[in-house]
Amino acid sequence: MKKGKNKISRYIAVYINRLKRINRKKVSRWFIKNLKTHPFILGILVFIWITGIIEVFFDKRTPVALAKFLLKLNGGLFLAWAISVIFSNLLKDKERVRWFLKKRFVFATLILFTPLGMIFLWSGSRFKRATKITLTVIFSIFFITSQVYNQKKAFRLMKMTAFERVVELIAKEKGKTYLKPFADTRPLSLNFIRLPKESKAKLAVSEVYKRNAASIASIVAKDKAGKEIGRGSGFVIFSDGIVATNAHVLKGAYQAEVSIGKQVFNEVFLLRNVAEYDIALLKINAQGLSSVNIGDSDRLASGQFVIALGNPLGLEQSASTGIISALRSSGGLRLIQITAPLSPGSSGGPLLNEYGEVIGITTLASFLFAQNVNFAIPINYLTQGLAKKK
Questions:
Q1: Residue 365: closest CA among 343, 380, 348, 349
Q2: Distance CA 330, CA 277 (A)
Q3: How far apart are CA 183 and CA 32, in angstroms?
Q4: 85 alpha-carbon distance from chain centroid
């Protein structure tokens, strides 16, 4: 036991003597040496430091809070660097690793991770001095510009309300669809099937489902090679093969497959794309299909009972129920907030009222925001959008 204690005491004594012999010159030499031999560590910490400094310009802080932040940032990064360097020096054969200074690797790192690339560039790479200076200027401007842009974007999103972010997701420009356009250029008839006022009667959920299940479509978006790239729902609005869905369901699609009951249609055309409302119409070669009744979304009220039909997670012709939580508007876009659960694959399905009329198109599922906070596009946007596209 005494031998062990004596051994520890000797180690402590040795390190104390080494610390006593430390002077400013030795410390400077140690720092310079390790700055050159550990570019990975320095590059990562420089990246964190620059990001922290850029954040200061977009965040309003009091002078005292700013001083505390900078002290913590610089002190923390310096301590992290020193600990990482000491640990790295314990690794064997560290000095033999020079592959990271080769020209191709340095240039690739400048593109992918600029701060780290800068360290490689000036720590022994074989670029000429003029080339180093040119690359430093170009990539410094690129890096700082991209950081400023990302910080602005992040702070803009932070200042937005949850609903404003929802609206932006729905109203933003959708990825292009490459489906073949329908050849018929004649104006599209807007004579939707509507229930007469006198024949309207409140229905049980089972009856609403029974009347509309045959009109629900399952949509599979495919790439050039015919590989599936996405799934969604839709519903027949005209019996001659016109199906409504969300525009984002067809993002990047070159082909599509539409299934209605046991019928599968592989020849699918794009009839209309009203991207600003996230609505698209497809045309399939069919006749005599069961179509839905279209309601009036301008007459909705919070607390109203609703039924969502669709194909969540590929489970065809599923139904979920809820109420209208609120009718919300922002940036000129009106949305129906509902409690009826939605899942991936539900997008583009019909939202129906207790009379069995379609009053909206389900578009955004709750997993993106919070439980039972889901959204649908008012069905009247379908008629407005089509009228504009005539």
A1: 343
A2: 13
A3: 71
A4: 37
DSSP H helices in the chain? 2-20, 24-37, 39-58, 63-89, 103-112, 114-122, 129-159, 162-171, 205-212, 380-388
307 to 194, 288, 358, 378: CA distances (angstroms):
18, 25, 9, 14
CA dist 97 → 3, 179, 316 (Å): 40, 52, 57
pTM: 0.66
Q: How many residues does the chain have?
A: 390
Give residues with Cβ within 8 angstroms of 360, minimum separation 6: 297, 306, 336, 338, 350, 351, 376, 377, 378, 379
Q: Which two tokens stand for residue 288?
A: 């005599």
Burial 329-344 (b: 16+ CB within 10 A, else e): ebeebbbbbbbbbbbe
Residues 61-70 pLDDT 10s: 788 888 888 8
Return the minimum-mean-pLDDT range out of 3-7, 253-257, 350-354: 3-7
Q: Which domains can be identified in the chain, with CATH numbers?
A: 38-159 (no CATH), 170-388 (2.40.10.120)
Tens digits of residue pLDDT in 70-96: 889 889 988 988 888 877 676 554 445
In this prediction, what percent of the chain has a pLDDT beyond 70?
A: 88
**In terms of Cα–Cα distance, which of 148, 130, 128 is closest to 138?**
130
3-state secondary structure of 169: helix
Side by side, the strands of the sheet bearing 242-245 are 263-265, 255-260, 216-222, 228-238, 242-245, 279-284, 268-274
Paired with 278 in beta bridges are none
CB 365 within 8 A of CB 346: yes
d(CA 57, CA 350): 46
Q: Which pairing describes strands 293-294 and 268-274: parallel, antiparallel, or unpaired?
A: unpaired
